[in-house]
Amino acid sequence: MHANTICNTPACEPLESRLLLTAAPRIAAIAGDNRAMVVLSVDRPLDPQTVNTRSIKVYRASGAASPLKATVSYNAAKRQITVRAKLGAPDQPYRIRLNSSIIRGTDGQALDGEFRAGAKSGDGVAGGDYLATLRPAATSVARFTTDLGLIDVRLFATETPLTVQNFLRYANDGEYDGTFLHRNTGATLVGGGYRVSADNRIQSIFQRAAVPNEPRPGAPGNVRGTLALEKLGSLPNSGTNQWFFNLKDNRDPLDSDKGGYTVFGQIINANGLKVLDRLAARGVVNIGSVFSSLPVKDADAVLKRGSLDPQKDLLFISRVAVLMTPGK
């Protein structure tokens, strides 16, 4: 039935003639990082066959006509689209386009795609491409994608510049991708040192030269939810690739021990703290050497089996990258 057929009195203003349809799918949220991975959340289920590299493309923001090489996947259970493009150097602005003439909901409705900053996409009518440009943010926030959720950390780029630059070199080169949390002391949760090879063996990641210590006791210091640089020895200036999250207030002794541990970031929201607590709550096993308090997904299963299966048992950090700001 057409909407204008219900108006039949002088007091009733005629409505636009259009079919009454269910709402079209919209983009509910977008998060993109400085290495051109974009995650888009959708408010209604999509037809997976319409979500692909034909319907979604990524371009350099400079106006280049040719799209970047990219992969596209859709998680129907989470209603999330994940796009990974080959940007080259990190921190370059880039554009993403979703073609509403191709992308459809499971009911056949086209995507309602007009980008609206800070809100769901669309103008209430099915159709309209989703176009967003992602640019470096004013404040650096590193996103840790873990097996149990996301942890967003504001980096103290002005206060601890050498430590943050060191951390970002590892993150931007993808050195932290696929690493795992390798020690839970009860006070700290340590990572950034090891990954698992394709043949399921633990190996150290590449280590750069140590950076000068930049401790700032009490500002905020090693309080719960902060990110600090681990030391690889007893010397103050021995920090390289490894880092740790403070699980509690560790200002005494970490603000002064070994010259003070440099705090270079802090979790920015309650959800990140909840994820940190979930990771810390998992049991630990002792497989010797530096892995005497190794966090695992299921300690009872490892102990019952009598051996560690790294790819199956460890708590992984699948990606560490800096978030970009989306806009038109």
Task: Map the helices and strands.
Layout: E1 27-32, E2 37-42, E3 56-60, E4 70-75, E5 80-85, E6 94-98, E7 130-136, E8 141-146, E9 149-155, H1 161-172, E10 179-180, E11 183-184, E12 188-191, E13 194-196, E14 202-204, E15 226-229, E16 243-246, H2 251-254, E17 263-267, H3 270-281, E18 284-285, E19 294-295, H4 299-305, H5 310-313, E20 316-322, E21 324-327
List keywords for this structure.
Immunoglobulin-like; alpha+beta; globular; 5 helices; disordered N terminus; 328 residues; Cyclophilin
SSE succession: EEEEEEEEEHEEEEEEEHEHEEHHEE
CATH class of the largest domain: Mainly Beta
- What is the CATH architecture term of the largest domain? Beta Barrel
> Quick one: CATH superfamily of the largest domain?
Cyclophilin-like
- Tell me the structural class: alpha+beta
Total domain units? 2
Strand content: 25-35%
The CATH topology of the largest domain is what?
Answer: Cyclophilin
Strand order of the largest sheet: 10-20-8-9-17-15-16-12-11
Measured as a percent range, the helix fraction is: 10-25%
Query: Major beta sheet, specifics?
Result: 9 strands, antiparallel
- Low-pLDDT regions: 1-20
Mean pLDDT: 93
What is the alpha-carbon Rg in Å? 24 Å
Q: How many H/I helices? A: 5
Morphology call: globular
Span between termini: 37 Å
Overall strand count: 21
